[in-house]
Amino acid sequence: MKKIPFPIVLALLLAACAGEDAGESADTEELTDVTFVLDWTPNTNHTGIYAAQAEGYYEEHGLDVEIVLPGEAGAEQTVAAGNGDFGISAQENVTQARLQDVPIVSLAAIIQDNTSYLASPEEYGLETPSDLEGHTYGGYGSPIEEETIASIMQADDADIDEVDILNIGDTDFFSAVQRDVDFAWIYYGWTGVEAELRGMPLNIIDFTDYSEALNFYTPVLITNEDLIENDPELVEAFTRATAEGYQLAMDNPEQAAQHLIDAEPDLDEELVMASQDWLADVYQSDAPYWGYQDREVWQNYMAWMYENGLIESELDVDQAFTNEFLPGAD
Known about the structure:
The structure is a single chain. This protein is an alpha/beta fold. Helices cover 44% and strands 15% of the residues. It is built from 13 helices and ten strands. The protein has helices at 6-30, 47-54, 57-60, 74-80, 91-99, 143-155, 173-179, 188-198, 225-230, 232-251, 253-263, 269-279, 295-307; strands at 32-37, 63-68, 86-89, 104-109, 116-121, 136-139, 164-167, 183-187, 202-205, 220-224. The relative contact order is 0.18.
């Protein structure tokens, strides 16, 4: 065998190393930067996003995802303006936005059923909408709140005019109901689970017991029309990677919850774990696959909003949502 001179061997080794570095650099450059806008501070509604990031699902789909808080503009306006690529919203917000020519589209229902309820300490005895008369509600100042409560009270032969409404903004539920108000609107998967951990029994009033239309999608995953039109491959990559993250949250809630805790160490670990365990069964519920959105749900809630004066005209709901980028839709 002919011996290769050492300088040539060295040159070949250096060239190979340079090629590996170039390949690694190329791989890094191939990742597309994506900004994801939350709707609120991080919580278990968002676990699938953090799980997809930590497990490398986004990278596998060619994405480098930055998760950011919504800021004053909110997720809807930020995404609509292209300052964020994807975000979290709710069905009522998307409906209102579309009617104001804000071009956002819902890509997936993060939670299949409405798990938000009116809640109060059990000792207050507020078990039905009619029990709310003579009591004080603590809300965040949206017209939707008053109309929703009015609707279920009317269904229970009660009158919202007999309820005092106080805007409590971001005040903690537990502080508010012990100091300022009698009941408030909560996501059970977070605040309700926290009440269980605190040993505080709650009475909850489920909107869907009084109106099928109130079983709407909250929260939802959104993007803007321009991104769908100009880069559908990116939309599909992000949506599929996110679906994988939520699938992990359903299949292994403890592992997924740990990713959220690792990313946001100020969160209460016990609450995150308990909340994740509760949500694991309701992300998909009885839908055919995670993220699925039923046109009837969009239509029913839009009609309810129109009938109650929350929107000035009816919306073609087919403009507001799509299932086409979800893996289950294949």
